Structure formats: C-alpha cells, structure tokens
Amino acid sequence: MASNSDIRNKPETRLFINGKFVESSDKQTFRLVSPSTRELIAEVSEASAQDVNTAVAAAKAAQPAWAALSPPERGACLRKFGDLMRENMKELATLEAISMGRPVRDYIDVYVGARLWDWFSEAGWAIQGSTSLNNPGMVGMTLLQPYGVAAGIIPWNAPMIFFSSKAAPALACGNSIIIKSSEKAPLTSAFLATLIEKSGFPPGVFNILSGHGTVSGATLASHMDVRTLSFTGSTATGRAISIAAAKSNLKNLHLELGGKSPAVVFEDADLEAAAATTQFGIGWNAGQICMGNSRIYVQDTVAEKFVNLFKEKWGSVRMGNPLDPEVGLGPVADSLQYEKVNKYIEIGKSSGAKVVLGGDKPTQSNQLGDGYYVPATIFGEIPEDSKTMKEEVFGPVVCINTFKTEEEVIEKANDTEYGLYAAVFTTNHARALRVAKAIQAGTVGINCSAPTNLPDLPFGGFKSSGVGREGMIHSMRNYLEEKSVMTKL
Ligand code: NAI
Ligand code: MG
C-alpha cells in the first residue's frame, strides 16, 4: 500500500481504460490546483473524444460476458471493491482534502460509498421480472436485462458517494460502465481505478476517465453506444446532457441536480437541536452540497433566539487547512466556486439583507494564505426575490427569513424551481406531516435535515432538481431494461 506522502506527492492521474492505465491519446493534461494554497498538485490526463470512444468500445465488448456471470460471481468483485475502499480510507480522505478542500474531520464519504458496494454485492438475486396469467390463452412474463454500456458523470462535492451510487448498481445489474470524474476532484476516482483489477473485474467492464465536461462528458452524453447515463451535478449541465441524449440515441437518463432546500422551524420546535442540525446542514462541506438547507424560515416569535443559537454554533467552527483534524470549514473547491460564492455574497449585501455573520473576506488571512476561503455567512431579512435567496450558491452561505403562519411558509418554501430536499422542525406531529405533504421536494426530513438520508428510501428531485431516483432498490431501475415476453398456449 502506498504511504500517505506518496499519495500526496505522486497520486495516480492517468485514465483507466480496458483494464490498463493510459495517458490521454493526445497527451493532454489539465492542472489541478490546491484550493487551500493555490499550488499545483497534479497534472491530470484529460480524456479526449478518442479516449471516450475507446472506453465505450471496450465496455461494449466486455459487457455480455459480465452479464452472463451469476449474481454471486459479479457480487464477489463488488464486495472486494467496497472492502478495498474502506482499507484505503486515509488515502482517499487525504486526496479529497488536497484536491477539493474537504476537511478530513468530516470525511464520511468512503463509509457511505463502501456500504453501497456491500449492498449491491448481494442485490443481483433481486433482479426479477413478473408474470401474468390475466390474458386468456396467454402467459406473459417480463425480463429485466442490463442496458449494456452505462455511463456515470459525477461532480466534485462528494465524489466517492456518487462514484459508488452509480457504478455499484450498474455493475450489479450486469452493465459495464464508464465513470467520468469532475475536473475539480479527479484524484480519488483515479485512485479507485487502482482497485479495479485487484477486485477481480475483467478488463473493459469498469473504466474511469478524468476530464472536463467538454470534451469527455459531452462525448459520453451523445455517444450512440451508451444506453443509460446517470448524472449528478448542476441543473444547467443536466439540461445540456438531456439535449445531447435527445439528439443522439435517446439514452435512458437519471439526473440528480441542484437544490435550494428550505428548512422550516416552528416556534414549538426544540430550537437548540434545530439550530445545531440546520447549521451542520449548510456547514458540512462548506455548503457545497446539493441538499444543504440554504434557506431557513423560522417563525417570527422565536426568530431572534434561533438566529443567535445558529450564529453561536457556526461562528465557533474552525476554518482552515482541511488536513487539520480540528478544522470544520475548509476552502471552497476552486477559483470558479470562490468567485461564484463571493458574487452571491455581494448580491446579498447589495439587496439590503442584514449580515448576521461573515459576509467579508477572512480576517485571519495571514494564517490562511492564498486559499479559497469563504467565512461562514448568515444573511437575515433578505428579500425573497434576491438571487442569493433564489439561486444555488453552493458555498457556506445561509439565508434566514421569518414567517408568521404555516400557510405562508409553505408558499414561500415552494416558490422555487428546485425541489430536492426540505426539513421541518416542530413537536406537533400532525403539523409536521401536513407540511411534509405540502412541500414540493423529493425528500423531507422531520426534525432532521441534510445530509441525513436513509439508504433504502428513494432520493431525487421534484421539479428542476432531477429526473428519476437513486437508492438501494430504486437505483437498479436506472440500469435495467424491461422486456415483455408472451407465449400463446
Ligand atoms: P457541473 O454540473 O458543470 O459539473 C458536474 C459534472 O458534469 C462534471 O463531471 C463536469 O465535468 C460534467 N459536465 C460539465 N459539462 C458537461 C456537459 N456539457 N456534458 C457532460 N458532462 C458535463 O458543475 P460545476 O461546473 O462543477 O459546478 C457549477 C455549479 O453546479 C456549482 O456551483 C453548483 O451550484 C452546481 N453543482 C451542483 C451539484 C449538486 O450536487 N447538485 C454538484 C456540483 C455542482
Ligand atoms: Mg462546469
């Protein structure tokens, strides 16, 4: 096993195609810069269109033999892969910290990801169609079959979770797969490529590419031989992928997109718990989380108390080097995120919002050097139509507004094109369920919030937050075609 300093000084940066590590066909690389220091960490292979085509061809050739294996034969490779991920937890945490700034303190991604490999390693037996005797003189049955070549395009905010939530079910269902990592966080996916052969996957079944949206992501989205594609990332890119799919082979799409998730806090809630939970819900991963509760509505009668509790909690989180185990707030992922988040902070300030916390460049900048650090920022009394209140900021910024009635807060919570996640805090059970029913979101937490998720429930978005669902059983639907077969008796 490589030592931790080897991992930092010489991480794997090549593409993994047809069971071999290769540089890109045209030798292109892209620069990966540390968000905490702005130093160059690695030059990473940038997959070309030719590399994508080679990977898809290898995946297409390898898939029939993979699908012909029994569930336990495929499952043994998945099980081993999950085990190896866990064994390399420290290395993966280090790579994520240096490439996208995730504090090692909160690095749960490998556990969450490995649990998916465990579960899908046993799931093959559950792939079963149905039968029908309803039609006189006929017997009907359905066959669930893999699509063939699957692709997964993943973002940078929690790569190990998304890598696993796409590759594990696709492979369990007998597809071959190509995962394309994000240009902002390619190192952990490239590292996982070193575990593929050790896990026993035959060459071509499991391929890993790094590169930007254009060329490699777009080439996968428009490829005629990719039959199903699962994407997690921004709504804008989800739209571009939908267009590319429509213009090529109408591949099956699963899209998990952005959010602007509301948390609603009623006056009868346990305010201390609600403040702690929602603070973590936006603070985790520097607010770079699709389901993060970026909008909080608190009932006016308890607003002052709630805001003070929230401020006290977030204000005491240490910001700094993500490799420091005491640090809870690292830098944002890269210069683009830094500019974007600061732009929304400026918009919030100029819209007349009250700055409750942060809102400025870090004051301890001498200790933080040149990193892309954005201090925890709380806006109060922000106009509902401010872009900072409406659009996905994806940074450590929360908007806290007040409401008077249940009816009013439901209307405000739903006044968005997003619908990924929502939370409601109250001790009134009937009210909690009324609000859960009324809110337009794919997931609602009652007295809990992001990133809480139950792995056996479906996860996905209402409205422009996505198409389709992921989850234990639910993910398998994204990787299986259903065929009707009928016999005349
Ligand atoms: P993005 O949506 O552009 O990137 C996500 C993935 O899609 C990356 O692997 C990227 O290379 C790929 N991609 C980009 N353009 C593509 C195309 N035309 N065809 C195929 N693949 C393509 O997100 P980005 O630029 O990294 O971040 C921008 C914003 O997106 C963030 O500020 C945030 O608001 C949002 N975002 C939301 C995420 C979520 O979980 N909902 C995750 C990542 C970003
Ligand atoms: Mg982008």
Automatic annotation (TrEMBL):
Pfam families: Aldedh (PF00171)
InterPro entries, alphabetized: Ald_DH/histidinol_DH, Ald_DH_C, Ald_DH_CS_GLU, Ald_DH_N, Aldehyde_DH_dom
Coiled coil: none
Substrates-to-products reaction catalysed: an aldehyde + NAD(+) + H2O = a carboxylate + NADH + 2 H(+)
Known EC number: 1.2.1.3
Keywords associated with the record: Oxidoreductase
Catalytic residues (UniProt): E256
Residues covered by the Aldehyde dehydrogenase domain: 21-485
Enzymatic class: oxidoreductase
Keyword Oxidoreductase: yes
SUPFAM superfamilies according to UniProt: ALDH-like
Taxonomic superkingdom: Eukaryota
Family statement drawn from the similarity comment of this UniProt entry: Belongs to the aldehyde dehydrogenase family.
Name of the protein this chain belongs to: aldehyde dehydrogenase (NAD(+))
The organism's taxonomic lineage, starting at the top: Eukaryota, Fungi, Dikarya, Ascomycota, Pezizomycotina
